[in-house]
Amino acid sequence: MLGQQMTLSPDPQPLRTPRNWKLTLSYDGTDFHGWQVQPRRRTIQGELAHALERITGETVLPQGSGRTDAGVHALAQVASVALLAAIPPPNLLRALNRTLPASIRVLGAEVASADFHARHSVRAKTYQYRIFRGEICPPTLARYVYTVPWPLDEDAMTAAAGRIVGEHDFTSFAAVDPDRTQRRETDGTIHNVRVIHSSTWERQGVERQGDLLVYTLSGNGFLHHMVRNLVGTMLEVGRGQRTADSILDILNARDRAAAGATAPARGLFLHSVSY
Amino acid sequence: MLGQQMTLSPDPQPLRTPRNWKLTLSYDGTDFHGWQVQPRRRTIQGELAHALERITGETVLPQGSGRTDAGVHALAQVASVALLAAIPPPNLLRALNRTLPASIRVLGAEVASADFHARHSVRAKTYQYRIFRGEICPPTLARYVYTVPWPLDEDAMTAAAGRIVGEHDFTSFAAVDPDRTQRRETDGTIHNVRVIHSSTWERQGVERQGDLLVYTLSGNGFLHHMVRNLVGTMLEVGRGQRTADSILDILNARDRAAAGATAPARGLFLHSVSY
């Protein structure tokens, strides 16, 4: 255009340093095969990578604070990803929410320090497991709760929940990790010791819909299926099939067979991650 | 077996009189093609008929209080159906909930008088329309609300809602009925006069998730798309594109083109039906 300087040969491409991003996501996991990318399957990580590629043109694989299984939900999962794009944070936030399906929302997009990594930098994680206490679960809740209509001794469940606070070897509550990414000791044994900061059951009213019984668990790390195996075992305590104190025996056994059933994925929410 | 009398020829089949049932249903309409049975499509009426056939062996078509469109939900839809099966009501309730998908629940099953008909006997119906007032709709709400993040003059919307209370010709708010089941006058014209008993907007807090703006509408009958067309038009009032008083002009026009857009199905709930 007249008056503008013509650039006949392009400047040498400036060296661009990628910026590291911290993304906070909420999702309804019902219709996804979990967090982790898999060939020909809809996953949260895959949808996020696809949206980032559509927005920035960059092929990236965002790292989550950890995987969530198929059907597990998140209120505030955290992902980190390095991007060359010089996009302002509010614009990336809006563009992601325009591109992603309504079942995945980005609640926050901020530039993080270069050494931030959504998984390696985790200090603590909190999970919630929601149980609907009634005969007939409202359809609008059905994707997000496990319905348990039979009587439960909630005091015994609360006692059982308290037994796991502190540092314990949770081998008995761990499924075999399908990807063998477990931490190993220097002698090669798998490191299944984790610290649980809090572990509580509480009732929450649902307007006109009966009651939820909600388990909230915080700790420095969680093994595969650990929360669902803890919930399944504590439900057996609630039914009187196990005692609250038996939780200590189960921990000591270091044997998955010593613990109870795995509670269904749909009641589980990754609640928050702290760094 | 020894000691039991053998019946060598069956008694003549006793004359069985069918009992008339009133079923109350709640459903998440997202994954269904509406209430009404359609070939090769999942519908609420079709799922209910299929469940009744599996339980009783009887091929029946339960009648609803009215159709709900694809994606529209129900908190308490009512259906009537005649069944020969001599099944106690609590057993039919349990069997239906064991057979139906979790997105359809039967909240009540009771024997009704022979002249009860879920549609013909309706005295009044109540609908609710839920609008999420925030930038980012939580994924667990996304199937059940319409997200409207822009400013709305809620006082003007409340005024507009009040204008439709009473007896009016709602032709301007009616889609053409695809099945031509509309009531007709003796001269063959379509009868689009309905009585609205109440029409209100109110705010409802959602724990940690921002606010809902909920429209509740009761009346003696509703035309096809009438609630969604009213909501779409009142949202235009809220944005300042129409005045509250313009609702009266729209009613007088008796012309669908005079009214506003159709609000999305996912925010609409059939709340209750009274007889």
- For the CA atoms, what is the radius of gyration of chain A? 22 Å
- C-alpha end-to-end distance of chain A: 51 Å
Oligomeric grouping of the chains: homodimer
Mean pLDDT reading of chain A: 91
* Main sheet record of chain A: 10 strands, mixed
> Given the structure, what is the number of helices of chain A?
5
Please tally the β strands of chain A and state the result.
10
Kindly list the characteristics that best describe this protein.
homodimer, 275 residues, alpha+beta, 5 helices, globular
Explain what you see.
Two copies of one chain form a homodimer. The first copy, chain A, is of the alpha+beta class and 275 residues long. The first copy, chain A, is 20% helix and 28% strand. The first copy, chain A, has five helices and ten strands, in the order E-H-E-E-H-E-E-E-H-E-E-E-H-H-E. In chain A, strands 1, 2, 3, 4, 5, 6, 7, 8, 9 and 10 form a ten-stranded mixed sheet that branches. In chain A, strand 8 (193-206) and strand 9 (210-219) form a beta hairpin. In chain A, helix 3 (154-163) crosses helix 4. Chain A is globular, with a radius of gyration of 22 Å. The N and C termini of chain A lie far apart (51 Å). In chain A, 37% of the residues are buried.
